Amino acid sequence: MIRFVLSATLTLWGAVASAEIDIQEVTSPGGIEAWLVEAPEIPMVALEVRIRGGANLDLPGKRGATNLMVALLEEGSGEMTAQEFQTAREALAASYGFDVYDDAFSLSAQFLTENRDEAVDLLRQALVEPRFDQDALDRVRAQVISSIRSEEKDPSDIAGATFDAAAYGEHPYGSSINGTIESVEALTQEDMFAAHERVLNRNDVYVAAVGDIDAAELGLMIDELLGDLPAEAPPGPERTEIALDGGITVVDYDTPQSVALFGHSGIKRDDEDFFAAYILNEILGGSGRQSRLMEEVREKRGLTYGVYSYLVPKDFAEAYLGSVSSANDSIAEAIEVIRAEWERLATEGVTEAELEEMKTYLTGAYALRFDGNGPIANIMVGMQMAGLPVDYIATRNEQLNAVTLDEVNRVAAELLKPEELHFVVVGQPQGLETTTN
Amino acid sequence: MHRLIALLLLLLPAIAHADEAVTTFTLENGMDVVVIEDHRAPVVVHMVWYRSGSADEPVGASGVAHFLEHLLFKATETMESGEFSSTVAANGGTDNAFTSYDYTGYFQRVAADRLELMMRMEADRMNNLVLTPEDIETERRVILEERNQRVENSPGALAREQMMATQYLNHRYGVPIIGWKHEMEELSMEDALTFYDLHYAPNNAILVVAGDVEPDEVKALAEEYYGVIPAEPDLPERFRPQEPPQTAARRLVFEDPRVAQPYVTKTWIAPERDSGDQEKAAALVYLAELLGGSNFTSELGRALQFDTQTAVYTSAFYDGMSLDDTTFGWIVVPADGVSLAEAEAAVDEVIANFLETGIDPERMESLRTQFRASEVYARDDVSGIARRYGAALTQGLTIEDIQAWPEILQEVTEDDILAVAREVMREESSVTMQVVPNSEALIQ
Q1: Which of B335, B365, B380 sits opposite A44 (nearest CB)?
Q2: Region A317-341: what's the mean pLDDT?
Q3: Is residue A235 part of a domain?
Q4: pLDDT in tens, A260-284
Q5: Do A308 and A261 contact (CB within 8 A), yes or no?
Q6: pLDDT attached to residue A13
Q7: Is the pLDDT of residue B17 over 80?
Q8: Of residues B138, B142, B366, nearest to A91 (C-beta)
Q9: Which residue segment(s) compose the domain that A325 sits in?
Q10: Which of A96, A299, A426 to mutate to test the interface with B (most CBs of B within 10 A)?
Q11: Could you tell me if B219 and B28 are in contact, meaning their C-beta atoms sit under 8 angstroms apart?
Q12: CA-based nearest residue in chain B for residue A146
């Protein structure tokens, strides 16, 4: 039944923590591959599915179609109306999270061992046989339009939309996956069926499961869930580059705290320098409290509650972004400090001590991520999407530790481009106006 | 600070479960200890919870509990400012802290064999904080920017502050956790240290350790590091001004041009989970689910989003995790062309019908199943279980109360729910708020 099972016991070496995650590579009878960690301790399964494509597959003039289609998957399928479907799901105490982002469709599901077959049947129905009833379409359309209106008044969303439009123009990355009020108002039932046909396929599908299930059962389950989806996927968009010069764009908005989104081009996930770039970014503006940006902007000057930078490698473009918010009378100073730090890191690089401290933190914290069935399934599906091998978990910390000071500092000089940094500032910032470097 | 976020989110009740491996004991100085074993991964969560939150602050110093939480990452007699977090990071761990009305908590997630170091540092900052005037100056700017980010830039958050201030006539829950801006601007070193000296003591604290640990080992370490700290003899009795009978319905209109989507919301004073007396709270959990827990199957969702197109969003909410009286409420975002007054009238009608018609037994059964299942799912998140214990113990509940809760939920009857609905939803204890971009939106 299972064509082959490759089992690899991996050990995670942290600074101090080590965890064993036994990942099995499963191929279903129908030929769909999945990664599995058997964890019978709790009578439940966490399942993650990704299908590459996502909102990038919106047809011309149909922006928002994929997003609306995905929102409608839980709104009626097979013989069931939306309410009948939800009544059945609630009675099973199963959760199905359907979502879409630029590059992929995502499903995050959890169900109990005691009614797993029924929970999977119902989930299959939503994935394969959605109805897109007109009343459901109209109801959910109104919800989407309501959230588009909210985004138009939210300073962070305004900053994101302004940055994306300027950076990517007509490319799908240049506009919100929600679409515009006009494009969403025009969407029809046929558009929903068309989007479903395009986006839900098993051409580029990734599956991870953790919980009370074995390889044979998982193989049958994923064939049932995904086997009836079309085998082919439509082509995605062309590659694109960030078309933004360095400078500042001020969007006037009457609110007391300015919100800034900034960035320039980034680095590919499969670039051989990605690890060095990852460490570099953690030192500059990573999620820990100790980043240089947090130290300079928050700890020393009290200019913000939080300032972060992040690498965003998407399928068709790579960005290096950051965000900060500060009162209208202090955002200019915050931006000045961020620019100076960007410049300092590009020219001076990091110190040996900073690099060692960051490696210790990152290698130790890695093991902490594997703290439940849901998180492990999520990590495994993310690894597959990134094209990483099953033994990545075991080798990741070694690879990270192998990065040298010279590599990080070479990448700093290449990746950080202070003169290309563009800030979109939403608010009424004092001492700032729209400029181009 | 999670309490401050998410206006439109349903507040899900916490569910405990029966077979978790929990050990509890109390140190000689009065510090309570809870150990939750989960040996699936070699990781531990170490938390210290103080039974003091924003509702325990002195008058005029709103926000000082949260301000102090920030300041606890500064220097102690033996550690430099920032060294706490950098030491956690250097040991491959992560750390943070949070403040609510009834508690302030600090936590680290690290490899299990680093527990001792975490205890040594956390015990150190319970008593040995050393602040400079620069710390006060800089960190006060940070909390003001935090308020800017969470509240001043969010019309929904500003509106909710007004609503809470109106709902509570006498209780400190009417004052925001993060503080009123004008009082935050005046917070001083003395304000912070006075709160610290009085409240940060082992007899006011709960240690929660969850993960790959043995209770004996935790006990030995806890005695070594926390057990040596003297109890605070002057720890004040935890007294908050209680609510008088609320005898007048209140109505608010909150206007802000940044409001994208007008909505109407209503809350009532409601009983919280009390030790040995959690039945009403359990019934209110069901009431919130039945009225507005699902857009598809709840009373409000069905009537306003399916049978009619009155609303684009409906929800009912209740959070029983509170030391003193909490609130029960609903929120509705009307559909295009429906006025706030019409939406409110529609909700009133739904509730009246619900009280008259009673509850579908299948819905009751489905909810019982979901509450039971949530215990299974909760076991996948040991940090969540740790938070549940910490929060409950700072809010006057006991270990027995926490462990009895799932069973109490299973035993709720239709009569319990209808009785508590009639008791709580009295007009005179309500606040109704319309949130609009401008006054024109009211007459649309």
Answers
A1: B380
A2: 98
A3: no
A4: 999 999 999 999 999 999 999 999 9
A5: no
A6: 38
A7: no
A8: B366
A9: 247-436
A10: A299
A11: no
A12: B261
State the Cα–Cα distance between residues A220 and B158, nearest whole angstrom. 52
Could you report the per-residue pLDDT of A36-77, keeping only the tens digit for each? Answer: 999 999 999 999 999 999 999 999 999 999 999 999 999 999
Question: Which of A15, A151, A290 comes nearest B91 by C-beta?
Answer: A15
Q: Where does the pLDDT of residue B245 fall: very low under 50, low under 70, confident under 90, or very high at 90 and above? A: very high
Instruction: Render pLDDT for A357-368 as a digit per residue (tens, 0 to 9).
Output: 999 999 989 988
Per the domain annotation, does A219 fall within a domain?
A: yes
Instruction: Pick left, alpha or beta for residue A427 (phi over 0 → left; psi -120 to 50 → alpha; otherwise beta).
Output: left
- Name the minimum distance, in Å, from the CA of B28 to any CA of chain A: 32
Alpha-helical regions (H) of A129-231: 134-153, 155-168, 181-185, 189-199, 215-226
Question: For residue A112, which residues of chain B lie inside 8 Å, CB to CB?
Answer: 373, 376
Mean pLDDT of A167-196: 98
Percent of chain B with pLDDT over 70: 95
Residue of B20, B69, B139, B272 with catalytic role: B69
CA dihedral A310, A311, A314, A317 (to 10 degrees): 110
pLDDT for position B20: 64
Residues of chain A positioned with their CB less than 8 A from the CB of B82: 289-290, 295, 299
The pLDDT, as a whole number, for residue A19 is 53
The answer to whether the Cβ–Cβ distance between A367 and B382 falls below 8 Å is: no
Report residue B145: phi and psi, to 5°. -70, -35
Distance from the A418 Cα atom to the nearest Cα atom in chain B, whole angstroms: 26
Beta pairing partners, A117: none
A389 shares a domain with A346? yes
**Contact status of A82 with chain B (Cβ, < 8 Å):** yes
Query: What's the confidence (pLDDT) of residue A149?
Result: 96
Same structural domain for residues A18 and A166? yes
Mean pLDDT over all residues of chain A? 94
Residues A26, A173, single domain; the answer is yes
ipTM of the complex: 0.93
In this structure, the answer to whether residues A373 and A410 fall within a common structural domain is yes
Closest chain B C-alpha to A267 CA, distance in angstroms = 26
Interface contact A310, partner B, CB < 8 A: no
Based on the domain organization, do A218 and A321 belong to the same domain? no
> Is some CB atom of chain B closer than 8 A to the CB atom of A91?
yes
Say how many domains are in chain A. 2
Residues A280 and A379 in one domain: yes
Q: What is the CATH number of the domain that holds A339?
A: 3.30.830.10
Average pLDDT (A110-126) is 97
Output the six-digit token pair for A303.
């200019």
A27 falls within a domain: yes
Asked if A126 contacts A66 with a C-beta cutoff of 8 angstroms, the reply is no
Q: With contacts defined as CB-CB under 8 Å, which chain A residues touch B43?
A: 17, 19, 367-368, 371
Active-site residue flag, B69: yes
Q: Whole-angstrom Cα distance, residue A189 to residue A62?
A: 12
The pLDDT assigned to A15 comes to: 37
Q: What is the rounded distance in angstroms from the CA atom of residue B293 to the CA atom of residue B366?
A: 12
Q: Which of B111, B149, B261 is the closest to A257 by Cβ? A: B149
Mean pLDDT of the B90-115 span: 95
Q: What is the mean pLDDT of residues A185-193?
A: 98
Residue A41, φ and ψ in degrees, nearest 5: -60, -35
Suggest the residue from A45, A147, A153, A357 to mutate for an interface test with chain B (most B CBs closer than 10 A).
A153
A238 inside domain = no
How many residues are present in chain A?
437
- pLDDT value of residue B40: 84
Residues of B in contact with A373 (CB under 8 A): 380
DSSP A295: I
> Which candidate from A143, A302, A373 shows the least CB-CB separation from B138?
A302
Average pLDDT of the segment spanning B404-419:
97
CA-nearest residue of chain B to A370? B41
- Closest CA of chain B from A237, distance in Å: 33
Read off the tokens for B251.
């109505």
Query: What mean pLDDT is predicted for residues B35-64?
Result: 95
Q: Which pLDDT band holds residue A289 (cuts at 50, 70, 90)?
A: low
Measured distance CA(A263)–CA(A255) in Å, rounded: 23
